[in-house]
Amino acid sequence: MRHVLSVLLILSVAASFATAGVERTTLGDIPRTFSHYMNAQEAALCRANAATGGPSSYFFNPACAADVLGVAGYATLRLNSKTRDYLPDGAESLDAEDDAVLFSQAMAVKRTDFWVLGFGYSCPSYRDLDLTGRVSDGEEITPYEAHFNGSLRFFEAILAARFGNNDQGVFGISSGAVSLSESAKEVRPGDPIESADLSGLGYTVALGFSFDATEQLTFGLGYRWGTKIKVKGQWYREDRRDETAVTQPVAVGGVRFSPVESVTLHAGYVQEGWDKARADLAAYSDDEGVRDEFDEPIGSAAFGAEVDLMDGRLALRAGYSQQVRADLDEGIVPDTSIGLGGGYSFSEYFVDVALVRERFDEGGTSGAVTNYGFYLSIGYLF
Q1: CB neighbours of 113 closer than 8 A, spacing ≥ 6?
Q2: Do 94 and 87 contact (CB within 8 A), yes or no?
Q3: What phi, psi does 355 have (nearest 5°)?
């Protein structure tokens, strides 16, 4: 029973579809992977800057927080729109409203001599899903309503220190609390209302390193340990007090290169898990209730470019990422992502925006799922 919390609210919906022989799609999952971009720069570059992107990359590499001269901070909103087509070929049908506005990240740091201190908030996984329609109970088509909600949120202190000749190297650490929250409510005529409500806290820590090989070339590495979260609450009609949910460990590596002063190129790799992704991270089950198992870690490679115009006040960004390692039956992380965005600085303040198109291979009756995310980051840097 220790892994039951990782099989999210999809289980009850999957069971209802099994009797009708319909392949279910991902309905109520709150993946334990870091599946959402968290700020506009990260989104526009499709996470190519995860290891070398300055303060906006602190979640994956805390050393990046030291890439400031004085004080820096920002807050980010994400507006999401996901196109899904559930059960399109029969009498069953479901309409979905999926993910709306999210306060996805905020951070602030201050540099004093060789030290950088600050704090950060990040929400890398989130789901707010409403379903309405008609599904089979094995004998007839009946109305169905459901609402699923869940989040994975990190609250951290950040510490980084510069060292070496001309402060070329940086070590960084971030540490704090991670909060997991999941809830569900399903309504069928003639059946009791099914509901679930779980919550828990855990401890998180990440380490990072960056090195300026030259004025034009920077390397970065980061690692965030998997987090065990003690949860309590009701999983439908069963008590789930003091059980453990686990987040996925994640490692990043990357390079930043500026061939000319106004152009910056990013290349990065993000990997979750090592020899095998944790089974208790799977947010899915098949129609017989059997857990999905991953035979490989989840890995994505990304490339991005940034061009500065108007004496550095205007930045234009573009990125592309491709899933290169994963044996997944369902779409937990995007197969491909394309990002476009830009930013403008008003004296010490800045505004960044990004639009990302993500393509997931869901399989089953719904085929591919396309996700569109709009990101707005507002901050200061002085």
Answers
A1: none
A2: yes
A3: -125, 125
CA-to-CA distance for 106 and 121, rounded, in angstroms? 5
DSSP 271-287: EE-SSS--GGG---B-T
Across residues 301-325, what is the average pLDDT? Answer: 92
Which domains, ranges and CATH numbers included, belong to the chain?
Answer: 4-381 (2.40.160.60)
Half-sphere exposure of 299 (CA within 13 A, CB side): 16
The neighbour count for residue 330, using CB atoms within 10 Å, is 22
- CA–CA gap between residue 221 and residue 279 (Å, rounded): 26
Categorise residue 113: left if φ over 0, alpha if ψ from -120 to 50, beta otherwise. Answer: left
SS3 (DSSP) at 302:
strand
pTM to 2 decimal places: 0.83
User: Torsion angle of alpha carbons 278, 198, 144, 92, nearest 10°?
Assistant: 0
Across residues 280-299, what is the average pLDDT?
49
H or E element at residue 344: strand 336-346
